[in-house]
Amino acid sequence: MTRDLYKWAYKLGPAVPGELLLDCFVLAADVRELDMRASPYDLRAAGYEPVAIETPEGKAQYVAAQREFARRGAGLRSRLLDVCRAVLAHGRGSGLTTGGAPGPATISSADHRDARYSPSRG
Predict the structure, then answer these.
(1) Strands 115-117 and 97-98: what pairing?
(2) What's the rounded Cα separation, in Å, for the pair 9 and 92?
(3) Are the C-beta atoms of residues 101 and 86 closer than 8 Å to each other?
(4) What is the pLDDT along the chain (122 residues), one digit of tens a residue?
(5) Cα 21 from Cα 47, distance rounded (Å)
(6) Whole-angstrom Cα distance, residue 27 to residue 40?
């Protein structure tokens, strides 16, 4: 899902270049805006023109927008995966290892014996 790209870009924190984080946020906001415009609520007073998905024209508009989101998401996903690969490659040379069990990973190194990493929920 394209909104998950922003979630993961944010979770990766300082490893993600600001431009990539912003691009992921803009995509997530655009997807959310379309969702609101296609909802059964009249949001014209807030500046959102409706997308009438119950009509053939509205459905076509919605599908076209979703395809564009998928195209934009593919490029962002590739860039985010590059960041992940770089972080993992850097970690391999750092002496840090993670535990293989599911759940919070144990990170061990000469300096930080049995430190706990607890991923944020989201």
Answers:
(1) unpaired
(2) 21
(3) no
(4) 687 999 999 999 999 999 999 999 999 999 999 999 999 999 999 999 999 999 999 999 999 999 999 999 999 999 999 999 999 988 776 554 444 444 333 333 333 333 333 344 34
(5) 26
(6) 22
Q: What torsion, rounded to 10 degrees, do the Cα atoms 25, 31, 34, 40 define?
A: -110
DSSP string, 30-88: HHHHHHHHTSSS--GGGT-----TTSHHHHHHHHHHHHHHHHHHHHHHHHHHHHHHHHH
The predicted structure's pLDDT at residue 91: 77
d(CA 101, CA 117): 13
- Amino acid at the residue 60: A
